[in-house]
Amino acid sequence: MKRFLTIGWTVLALAAAFAAGAQERNMARLTLADTAYVDVSMGLRGEAGPMKDIYAPEQLAQGVLDVVSQRRLDKVSLYGRFGYGYDYGKGSTWRGWIDPYETPFMVADSVPGALSLERYSLQAGAGLPLGGGWAAGLDLGYDVALMAKHKDLRSKNTAMTFRIVPGVSWQGESLGLGLDAGYERSTERVEFTQISENVEHTLFDLYGVWLYHGNGYASAETRRFKEAERFFGDFQLDVRLGAAELHNNIRADFRREAQTEVGYNNLRHGDVRSLTWSDDLSLQIGRRHLVQVTAAFSTMQGFRPLQQQELDPDSRIRIWVTYGDPVFCYFRQYHYEKLSYTYGSSWQLTLGVENWKMMHSYTEYPQRFTQRIGTVTPFAALELPLGEAFRLSTRLGFAKDYDACSDVTAWQLAEPMLRQWDYWDGDSVLAGLTLRWSRGRTYIQAAYDLELSTSGTDYDGLRHVAGLTVGFLF
Q: Which of 35, 71, 282, 300 is buried most deeply by CB count within 10 Å?
């Protein structure tokens, strides 16, 4: 989790934006800026090293193409974006879903292999002024992702996301308000197949804190389907008083998900409910002082149905029958805070601290298994101009774990759980360097980041990340 929260330090800005897909926004606020541009950028990124998340490949290469455009036609402000990304990783394992942290219920195998992931993203938005400072907008997004593992057991994932976000805004002389509410539907399907013969592989059904069922893979395909709905809303506040500007965005996000077996007569694997609250605030005083505060809190609940196979007297086919409501079995609670202060205009110095803590548990009556981890990361960053065309940015931080506890039982997959736990439960140094060149309508950005373990575990080492982005403005 620590490495995902500090991802902005280890990924180029372009790659990070695309990894999450097109980001929803209140398009009514497009009317506040009369700008017209087309930004075309291409990026390459690679990472390697033994210090990694259990789901991450040993080596990863990424390519990204991103096209963003904004312009005004008469009174209507328009926004459009197309993104494409391709990831190729070596030595990937335990990756049953594209996003392994989206649900506690996972299906995966333990054999390392090459993994490819393609993402396509489309986003379109429009904002229309209504008079009296009011404006309305609409944001539409459609994302597709394809993932495949190229070694037995071979998995193929197909995912789709559709999003619609209407919004309104009001702008006065010193006060601005915005409100949007959105709906998102996403689906993902995974299929496992085996090419080699006379070799038995194990397919694992994971359900929280690395508790599992393992079965020898049969010759027939194994297919699982995951569908989710997300409801969310944002409230934006802008205040301008003299040289001071305050911007605040408060968000609420509710997600529900269900997993079923494809073509297996109503077999269900689990339901998930997630609720997240977040607040992003920035205070700019003049040109030299900037204070930024971020806070987020989320909970996740997992439920497993009580099912057994019974013979249908009419069709004479064995089907899965559900008894009662799903049983609550998994709980995760997470909070994250970040505070930073930036001083300077042509050059900028940033000092800040991040804090996060996570606890999750799984109940297999009458036993309950728990993990918790907390990390605090003070950091500093310096951005300097080098002549007229270059800017240099350096970053340095230290991640210190202050609260860690994990249950271990024979019911769990001990080796991957302990490997992941040693990665979480360990102090590390975070460092990075970015050099940006821009002239006219062209810009080039190169970045290098590393994470160095200082914890003294069996999984000490480095994780290197390097990237290059080339962009053109029209």
A: 300
Tell me what pLDDT residue 319 has.
85
In the block, which residue shows the tokens 């089907």? Answer: 319
State yes or no: pLDDT of 53 exceeds 70. Answer: yes
Q: Strands of 202-207's sheet, edge to edge?
A: 105-109, 202-207, 212-216
Domain ranges of the chain: 2-473
List the one residue out of 273, 369, 401 whose CA is nearest residue 5.
Answer: 401
CA dist., res. 45 & res. 65, Å (int): 12
* Cβ neighbours of 85 (radius 10 Å): 22
H or E element at residue 245: strand 244-261
Report residue 312 as tokens.
């249908």
C-beta separation of 223 from 384 below 8 A: no
Pairwise CA distance, residues 228 & 186, whole Å = 5
Contact status, residue 155 vs residue 96, Cβ threshold 8 Å:
yes
pLDDT tens digit sequence for 312-364: 888 888 888 889 889 999 999 999 999 999 999 999 999 999 999 999 999 98
- Three-class DSSP category at 322: strand
What is the greatest pairwise CA distance in the chain?
82
List the beta strands (DSSP E) in 93-174: 105-109, 113-131, 134-149, 154-171
**Tokens of residue 325, six digits:** 């409501």
Alpha-carbon gap, residue 242 to 228, rounded angstroms: 45
First-to-last C-alpha distance (Å) of the chain: 38
In whole angstroms, give the CA distance from residue 273 to residue 207: 15
Backbone angles phi and psi of 8, in degrees to 5? -65, -20
Task: At 327, list the tokens.
Answer: 């049983």
Please state which CATH class domain 2-473 belongs to: mainly beta
DSSP state string for 250-313: EEEEEEEEEEEETTSSS-EEEEEEEEEEEEEEEEEETTTEEEEEEEEEEEEEEEE--EEEEE-T
Q: Which of 372, 376, 359, 356 is nearest to 427 (CA)?
A: 376
Q: What angle do CA 319, 325, 328 make, to 5 degrees?
A: 115
By the 8 A CB rule, do 270 and 103 touch? yes
Tell whether the model's pLDDT for residue 463 goes beyond 50. yes
**Single-letter amino acid code for the residue at 166:** P
Preceding omega of 57 cis (within 30 degrees of 0): no
